[in-house]
Amino acid sequence: MGMKTFDQLDETLHYDELPNGLKVYVLEKKGFNKTYATFTTHYGSVDNHFKPLGKDENVKVPDGIAHFLEHKLFEKEHGDVFQDFSKQGASANAFTTFNRTAYLFSTTGDVKKNLTTLIDFVQEPYFTEKTVEKEKGIIGQEIRMYDDNPDWRVYFGLIENMYHHHPVKIDIAGTEKSIAKITKDDLYECYETFYHPSNMILFIVGPVDAKDILNFVKDNQSQKTFKEKEHIERFFDEEPKTVAKTKKVIEMTVQTPKCYMGYKEATPNRKGKELMKHELSVNLLLEMMFGKSSPNYETLYEEGLIDQTFSFDYTEENGFGFSMLGGDTGSPDEFVERISGMVEAFKQQSIDEGSFDRARKKKIGAFLRSLNSPEFIANQFTRYAFNEMDLFDVIPVFESLTVRDVEEVLQNHFKKEAMTVCQVQKKKS
Amino acid sequence: MVNHKTTDLHGMTVHTIETKKYKTTSFILQVKEPINEKNVTKRALLAYVLQSGTKDFPSSKELRSALDDLYGATLNADLSKKGENQVISIRMEVANEKFLSNSEPVLDKAFHLLSQVLLAPALEGDVFKEGIVKKEKRSLKQQIESIYDDKMRYANKRLLEEMYDSEPYRLNVYGNGDEVDSISSKELFDYYQEVIKNDKIDLYVIGDISTDEMVDKVSKHFRFSKDRKEDETKAVNAADEKRISEVKEIFEEQDVQQGKLHMGYRTYTTYADDDYFALQVFNGIFGGFSHSKLFMNVREKESLAYYAASRFESHKGAVFVMSGIETANYEKAVKIIKEQHEEMKNGNITDSEFEQTKAMINNQVLETIDHPIGLSEVLYHNVVAGTNRSIEEWMEGIKKVTKDDVVAVAKKVTLDTIFFLKGAGTNGNENV
Description:
The structure holds 2 protein chains of 2 kinds.
Chain A: E1 2-6, E2 11-17, E3 23-28, E4 35-41, E5 49-50, E6 59-60, H1 65-73, E7 75-76, E8 79-80, H2 81-87, E9 90-96, E10 101-107, H3 111-123, H4 129-147, H5 150-162, H6 176-180, H7 184-194, E11 200-206, H8 210-222, E12 247-252, E13 258-264, H9 272-290, H10 295-302, E14 311-317, E15 320-328, H11 332-348, H12 353-370, H13 374-386, H14 394-400, H15 403-413, E16 419-426
Helix pairs in contact in A: 1-7, 3-8, 9-12, 9-15, 12-14
Chain B: E1 4-9, E2 12-18, E3 24-34, H1 40-50, H2 60-69, E4 74-82, E5 85-95, H3 106-119, E6 123-124, E7 127-128, H4 130-149, H5 151-163, H6 185-198, E8 200-207, H7 211-221, E9 248-254, E10 259-266, H8 276-288, H9 293-301, E11 305-313, E12 318-325, H10 330-345, H11 351-368, H12 372-385, H13 391-400, H14 403-412, E13 414-423, E14 430-431
Parallel strand pairs in B: 2-8, 9-13
Antiparallel strand pairs in B: 1-2, 3-5, 3-8, 4-5, 6-7, 10-12, 10-13, 11-12
């Protein structure tokens, strides 16, 4: 059992790694009503090519299977686990990202009972042909809902443009066609491989007693047997540094066009502190270039090229990384021209210390604000941990950044040849 | 449970909530007036103009820089419809200085800035700065148009227009796109002066603060003119509501993959009523949670939808059902949804549905008040409804609801309008 204190933040994190490899973290939040817990596996939509646990041959599985598995784990022989949580006054949910699948609940009542339900339902799969078939209708409607959502289409379209091979370009839910192929045996095979405790993190945040909760989880796990932990082999094809496609236009029934542009990261293979430093640097730079207090933002807003929907972000993990900027815009082509021009102009001038400090202050403030949210802490801590980073390093790393660091990412990341554009335009009738 | 104190100052009510839970201090200003055709668009525009510049920081860029300097304080203005009211919410959140390594006095500066946003806007001559008004008009128009692009929001908007065709509640909280251009800076400024003079203004301050200190600061920074008087005649009574003789059914077709089914019910019960708690429980059992009748029957049993849910508007007294379905399944889905309502009228509510719902509502309230904005919203219900319920009383009210109470409410709840956005069913074409 370990403990880490973060004096500046007035937080203490308790943790333990159990004999089966499961990592458990508990953050005490006194004064809150809510306890929030996430049970997350390091397995998402990109993990479609791997060596199944205990087998010699690699397999490729249908698109959307990680997400399908997420849906199906809720169903048990006795019915739906959602109901068990509701009976216990908790609300449960789950989500699948490119490389994580998280199961979670929040409650203001009996934490231990709900925690047992969470751990046990994730660790006791129950799939039948019949229930797998039934789910195809529901997920089919989920896919169609996203198909009608222009924000999702333009976001995903941009990622598709960037990648030649990397499975990050495959929609997380798959397609109606790809999910039609999923069988219960596929689900078991993925489950066996990726839901081993050594590939998972349990995070609990709330008004709890950390030692008591850690012992409780230990006790639960000691009553179950698991296979020996094995290193999971995942396979990815070599991905070129160039983008697969420089522009795509999707026609939909919208009134305002949408435009996103992005830069593909050439060397997305960082881990730990190096990754954190890089991510924070690019995000800080984006804030300086296009944040609400920047001259560029003012210009773009005044010219009517952006509105309140404009946003930007950089993310990197597991072999892919990209920045993206965009939102609703009346003139998508002009938007691209102006933004890329502004990026090029930024490269020509030296970084101003004053705006660097201001942007950094803003980012630190935003981070403190997000620590009010138990959901943020649990979800982000887990994402960071899977990439060998520690969420509570964010402020010190921000404080250690220098103008030199952002100058470096400015020159290396924002390259013309790494840029791509995706637009949603009004359908011509 | 919540240390909530109110202080009436000349011009506004200050609500302070002292708590050590957060690493930030939150300010929430609520400015309320009944929604009406004449002012709805102006009021929306006003909210965005106010957050775009002050006397000291007369452009968005300067104002945003000042916020960044306050360790990334956030400021945003937004609009909502609470019953028959159109409420402007101006929210600001600043880091608590004790967590910053070089401790700076951010709180006083924040207070000053917030008061300036409301009371000392950026002017040019005697009216709002033309440049700001122009930009915000464009942005507001785009925002109104974007509702069309989000099919769920669009269907919801259309349902309200059809269902409340002769009531102010039909109005979109962001106003009418066609009217935006015609609003002049002068006209907007005149309207602003009316708002500052007559509207009901409440300020919530939540964080590791002291009430006395906050009240002092408010008195120092927020100065209203002597003739300020909340217009009492503006209070709206939503009780006399239309009776339904026939359900309205509206169809519209668009090129979408999934049909959007939205149904509106009148409940004849609002926040101020005694059977409000029973309505809460009704909505929970009907479609509020993942154990609800709609979720279980439309999604789990029939696989017709990914989502099938209901929500209610506390101050208007309405329940809205929404679901995304295959166009061909319209009849089937509507039939199942109507059946669930019938079941509830007939008292077919299991003990576990009933108890689970109460437990979930209890959980939901406790979770909501963990968040500063959620907490202020829960407390603001009292202001809107003219009630004085503590959170404890609220939870006690839910506890006391019986199945018979829920059945009685279910019988009052009446379907008014169905809006269905039908899919023509082809995919968006991709080309380069």
